[in-house]
Please model this.
Amino acid sequence: MRKLSIGIIDLVAKAPSKTMWGRVMGANFASIMPQVVATWCEEQGHEVTLVTYTGREDLLKELPEKVDLVFIGSFTEAALLAYALSSLFRARRAVTALGGPHARCYPQDAQKYFDYVLGFTDKALILEIVADCAQHRPLGLHLSAARHPVQLPSVSERWKFIEQTLRKAPFIKIVPLLSSLGCPYTCDFCIDSSVPYQPLDADAMKEDLRFLLGKFKRPRVAWHDPNFGVLFDRCMDAIEEVVPPGRIDFIAESTLSLLSEKHVQRLKHNGFKALLPGIESWFEMGKKSRTGQTTGMDKVRKVSDHVNMILRHIPYVQTNHIFGLDGDEGSAPFELTKRFLDLSPGAFPAYSMLSAFGQAAPLNLEFQRANRVLPFPFHFLSNIQMNIKPKNYSWLEFYDHLIDVTKYSYSPRLIVRRFLANGETIPRWLNIVRGLSSERFGRIKYFTEIRRRLDTDRPLRRFFEQETTEIPEYFVERIRKDLGEFWDWLPDGAICHDPNAYLLSAEMACSSCNIPNVGAA
Ligand code: B12
Ligand code: SF4
Model:
């Protein structure tokens, strides 16, 4: 076997960032898979360099000079940076591979710029690519394992890579873990709606927790499970077996339907400090929030009582909401969200706009069939820029409501109320830093600028109204500014993509191809 020099790049950020929130938390948002791939490659005797880009480093300086093969892990918002990096490395004669959310959602587009584009990724697939390590151009190979890996390297095996990433986190250091993959729920907008739930080995989880107890006085762990605690007792039993109560602080994303008071008390007992339940809508998805058929203000009251119960036990609760769903109409979804914040002042609201990330979810086929997906450059697709034409709103109405609810949510008054309602020091200050730096100044500024341009920037308005697919100069300039020296490496045409590529590939489904055309992979 030829010993290769392999670079692995985890794009946590899409551009340089100086925000306080990014400084405090950036490195804690690193992904698990780049560390996993690094471990698998090193085990085979290859020389591995992992670079985690959080937006604060000089990326060009951090990149390995001479590599045979580069794996890049990227969300869609960082795809253009990933494409530019791929062409830079190709110019240095390296073979390039893309994995992560963007590769899963937009494989057809990524194939134009990478030699390999990966869906589900397991060890066998990585070893296959490393053994092949060949150029596949002009169209890269789209490869996918049949499912997620059944086992991941332990924390001790990937410790070297975790440690180097955590060195970038100034004082709060959070280790990412997984106890399961996929999800048994089927929320039709979600990338996991068609990925079967798969718990990971409980003994491996215990070994990881034991290891961390030996490394830190008080470890902090973020569960990256899409929906933590589906097999609730199994997870809690494993934690209770190895972690003395309160010795590890945990963070997890879960659904309200799993968070009964009994469960929350047990989570509290076991050191859970932050929970991120999805509420999504006041009019849909009642099953997920345990509100059944209840909608509107009745649902607000019910959810608010539930969230306040959680806040009595858990100091940091982020509630996830989606705006722009087809079931939403008029000012009600926004006004109800404000009432919810009045009733649950301790909750930190996180807003996503309905987004169709390529082939993430089968529902996206419907949006594409109805020609409702706009080709916003990938750089803006992070749940903040809705890329689906709203069903029941004009863009002007939608932005007016959005700006109003965002200003209300991160107003000084609500930030102070949140501060007073949170019982513990770190959650209190995180709420302030996040409320001010990322949400208030970041999002409100962006939404207000888009709203202003919808009135004054004719080409931008025509793009939003689907009268043209030409990317407005405002977006092009922002990308140019964000990419800086990498702009020159961006392949021609990369800022444009076919928003209906998924539909096209589903319609052209080839019987001899082993890549599923419909579904999340
Ligand atoms: C945990 C999570 C987070 C965590 C951790 C993020 C992280 N860095 O991993 C936090 C809370 C920080 C987060 C933040 C964000 N997230 Co998030 N997140 C998730 C979630 C719930 C689970 C992802 C996960 O870890 N799964 C477990 C891993 C093992 O599975 P996987 O991701 O499917 O990966 C498989 C393959 O893709 C591949 N793979 C993955 N990475 C890599 C890397 C390499 C190099 C290779 C070779 C292969 C590979 O191997 C895996 C095994 O098969 C998903 C939703 C979901 N249900 O999947 C959203 C999701 C990934 N997030 C999403 C978004 C939009 C965001 C934000 C941009 C939101 C925002 N506006 O701030 C930020 C971006 C933060 C950042 N850049 O780091 C979108 C991504 C869509 C897209 N195409 O970009 C998703 C899909 C949710 C959605 N809206 O549909 N997120
Ligand atoms: S939104 Fe959450 S609960 Fe619904 S399928 Fe996705 S991970 Fe599961």
